[in-house]
Amino acid sequence: xxxxxxxxxxxxxxxxxxxxxxxxxxxxxxxxxxxxxxxxxxxxxxxxxxxxxxxxxxxxxxxxxxxxxxxxxxxxxxxxxxxxxxxxxxxxxxxxxxxxxxxxxxxxxxxxxxxxxxxxxxxxxxxxxxxxxxxxxxxxxxxxxxxxxxxxxxxxxxxxxxxxxxxxxxxxxxxxxxxxxxxxxxxxxxxxxxxxxxxxxxxxxxxxxxxxxxxxxxxxxxxxxxxxxxxxxxxxxxxxxxxxxxxxxxxxxxxxxxxxxxxxxxxxxxxxxxxxxxxxxxxxxxxxxxxxxxxxxxxxxxxxxxxxxxxxxxxxxxxxxxxxxxxxxxxxxxxxxxxxxxxxxxxxxxxxxxxxxxxxxxxxxxxxxxxxxxx
Amino acid sequence: xxxxxxxxxxxxxxxxxxxxxxxxxxxxxxxxxxxxxxxxxxxxxxxxxxxxxxxxxxxxxxxxxxxxxxxxxxxxxxxxxxxxxxxxxxxxxxxxxxxxxxxxxxxxxxxxxxxxxxxxxxxxxxxxxxxxxxxxxxxxxxxxxxxxxxxxxxxxxxxxxxxxxxxxxxxxxxxxxxxxxxxxxxxxxxxxxxxxxxxxxxxxxxxxxxxxxxxxxxxxxxxxxxxxxxxxxxxxxxxxxxxxxxxxxxxxxxxxxxxxxxxxxxxxxxxxxxxxxxxxxxxxxxxxxxxxxxxxxxxxxxxxxxxxxxxxxxxxxxxxxxxxxxxxxxxxxxxxxxxxxxxxxxxxxxxxxxxxxxxxxxxxxxxx
Lengths: 375, 368
Description:
The complex is a heterodimer. By secondary structure, chain A is mainly α. In chain A, 74% of the residues lie in helices and 4% in strands. Chain A has two domains: 212 residues, Orthogonal Bundle (ABC transporter involved in vitamin B12 uptake, BtuC), CATH 1.10.3470; 92 residues, Arc Repressor Mutant, subunit A (Orthogonal Bundle). Chain A is built from 18 helices and four strands. In chain A, the strands form two sheets. Chain A has a two-stranded antiparallel sheet with strand order 1-2. In chain A, a hairpin with a 2-residue loop joins strand 1 and strand 2. The N and C termini of chain A lie far apart (64 Å). By secondary structure, chain B is mostly helical. Chain B has 16 helices and two strands. In chain B, 48% of the residues are buried. The chains are: A mainly alpha, B mainly alpha.
């Protein structure tokens, strides 16, 4: 990789990590779509600040856009507080209106300056190395890398400092309120950081990638662990992996870097969805199959236990009889018996499938009586 | 307004926007009622890779092929959202955000791939991102109106099933209706509404076309068919107004203007709809507070009288005021009650009349 490419790769990883931090909380708090809403709704804030400063690199842009992000959250809550529209409709109404205002402002007043809407939506990390940060006459690297690193560190600081508050407010808002942690304040705090991250990242990678990087790695991490700390760390790691995979793919095929990173985060999620050890769908299917057999073996043990030592045992304990009594297919019955045998639950008296008698082992008796008790 | 009838371009743009408003408003009703307002946003973003693949396969920009590609991708995205939320603990909103951004990312990758392979030919990316209402021609309007009209017709044909899905899917299941299939069917209709809108208002603003007319219509009525008609009407009104505003020399883009018109309709509906609207609610609250205060003063006067075993005994105003917080305008309330003939002025203050006493007895029953 050339130096420019290394810088882009580094920026991609930093963006992914910075987005994944607040993203984990968005996923847990069922507010993932706020990332979409905020990343679009900040447009008018950026435009107005640009009119005031005439400088796309002004820090005022980030402040104004972040303020617009918080304003979006407030408007959504205001709409919801009327109890006339639901949350999803409130979000779906607010951000297109704000985005429209942004587009109209651009069309009306900024027709010939460098501020077009697809840059906001799409972004292009490939341009990042051209905008250098010069300190004291020395070139110390791309400006975007420093901005994103600062935002990422701010996110780390916010989450570490308010970890306990965020955790309680996320999992038990009622308790958080009762303990005086101010879940509303935490909510707006988190939304402020989501806004700042979205604004800082949109310039480098566009608003769609911001959404992908906030939600996809965190959703994947949510399927891998039940611990908040692990989930945050995992989503940072998965985000970084998507950034590396995406950028390398983009380099190979010469396609959109932002798009490739979003696609890579989708591939990562798909892989986790299929293969996660506990919550993946393959694991779920295996678990269901295992449960089916375990249940059948227990049924068999209970059946034998019920008739053990009684006069009808000679009939009931025949393998061939299971078809009738438990309405099992012949094949299924034989496989259950074989499994139960190898698990040491039952014994056979001889090897003739039709007439041989089954007997519970002590272990099988214990399993049956335990199962009955648990009923 | 005159221009609307003389100017061909404007007529087409207005007609196209009106068609879009009617279709998305009508079908958006169900999305809003079912709490799926943001599904439209996900579908519209997810359509991008479908457009790109259709472009790759057909090698050209045939609007119909691109539309079919967009619809298939949007439909696939919805299936993927349903199947992940159905098999894991991932929440619906996470899946919406994930799907819209990932599909859109894949679409971008494909489009950049097409751009470098096909050279200058671009699949009109900008058109689909931001819409290009001002370039609508007769053919576009027809390609929008035919599938859109078909979708509305199907909605009318399966009215009963869709209504059950929106309000009580469990009941539908007990009736033996395949509710999952009805859900997929409704989603397909929604996909049609979104796909025909992409060319006009673009990916981002499509969400508002689905949500705003329906959310506004919801405020005016509690009846489904009225809500569908109202939101289709609101959608059409906003579409035409936006188109006219953008053509009258302002040079402003049509899509955002349509969305702003929607926003205005929405806000007006929230404020002024009878019954549900905020203004109506406020008036109702004031009226009932007023009545409650009148009744309270009447009961207070009675209670004061009963302390002397004479319900009709007069009491000075100060005594009545002392029963309540000083914010309660006892003076004015007594005046109102006097006008209604429930209390009268006596030499030593205020007293219940016979009618007032009868009212007190009914009130006492009501309040216990």
